[in-house]
Every structure is written in structure tokens, then in C-alpha cells.
């Protein structure tokens, strides 16, 4: 009986202590820019049209409004952080000149 009581209390202690781990939250921040959305963006679009498709940029240079940065980071509870940036460059007249960054629009993608 004494062995059973020892095993039961040890099992209870181990079960209780295993629940004491720290809860970690997945953290997602920024603008999620999908391939489907990027496929809708092309050179020559004005800022209002780009904003209608992608939303407001996360970062914008306060001295020059010619560069918009859409940044997204994902930090899972356990694992490494993923960061993606899409940078749009506009001309002085407000038309889109180039798209650069980590996510590229695929020519034949349908979505």
C-alpha cells in the first residue's frame, strides 16, 4: 500500500509540474501582402489605387513620400521569426515605378 501511495503521489506531482510551463503566444505584426494582391499591382498605378489594393503602408519616410514599405513579421511561440518586406517606389508624380522586397508576384499565378 505504501508503494502505491508513493507512486500515486509521484505521478500527481509530475502531472502538476508539467502544467507549469510558460505560455508563449504567436505574434504576427504588420501588413500581410499575398501573391494575389501583388499580382494586382503594376507600374503606372497611382498611390490611391495601390492603397486600395494593399491598404496603408506600415512604414513611410517622413521626408519623402516616394517609398512605401509593407512589412510583416511572424514570431511563432517556438521557432524563428520570419520577416517579409515589400517596398514600393513611386515617381514624383505619384505613379508606381518599381516593386522590390521579399515577396514577388508570380506571372502565371491564379488566385
TrEMBL record:
May I ask which residue range the UniProt record assigns to the signal sequence? 1-19
Protein keywords: Cell outer membrane, Lipoprotein, Membrane, Palmitate, Signal
One Gene Ontology molecular-function label: protein-macromolecule adaptor activity
Where in the cell does this protein reside? Cell outer membrane
**Which positions fall inside the Outer membrane protein assembly factor BamE domain?**
30-98
Kindly list the biological process annotations in GO that this record carries.
Gram-negative-bacterium-type cell outer membrane assembly; protein insertion into membrane
Query: Which topology term describes how it sits in the membrane?
Result: Lipid-anchor
User: Main subcellular localization, coarse class?
Assistant: membrane
Function of this protein? Part of the outer membrane protein assembly complex, which is involved in assembly and insertion of beta-barrel proteins into the outer membrane.
Subunit structure of this chain's protein? Part of the Bam complex.
The UniProt similarity line reads: Belongs to the BamE family.
Name of the protein in its database record: Outer membrane protein assembly factor BamE
* Organism encoding this protein: Igneacidithiobacillus copahuensis
Recorded name of the encoding gene: bamE
Amino acid at each position: 500500500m505504501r508503494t502505491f501511495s508513493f507512486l500515486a503521489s509521484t505521478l500527481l506531482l509530475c502531472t502538476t509540474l508539467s502544467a507549469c510551463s510558460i505560455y508563449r503566444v504567436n505574434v504576427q505584426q504588420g501588413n500581410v501582402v499575398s501573391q494575389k494582391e501583388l499580382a494586382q499591382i503594376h507600374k503606372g498605378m497611382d498611390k490611391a489605387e495601390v492603397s486600395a489594393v494593399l491598404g496603408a503602408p506600415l512604414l513611410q519616410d517622413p521626408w519623402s513620400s516616394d517609398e512605401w514599405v509593407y512589412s510583416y513579421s511572424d514570431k511563432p511561440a517556438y521557432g524563428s521569426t520570419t520577416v517579409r518586406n515589400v517596398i514600393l517606389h513611386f515617381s514624383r508624380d505619384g505613379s508606381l515605378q518599381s516593386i522590390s522586397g521579399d515577396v514577388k508576384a508570380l506571372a502565371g499565378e491564379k488566385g
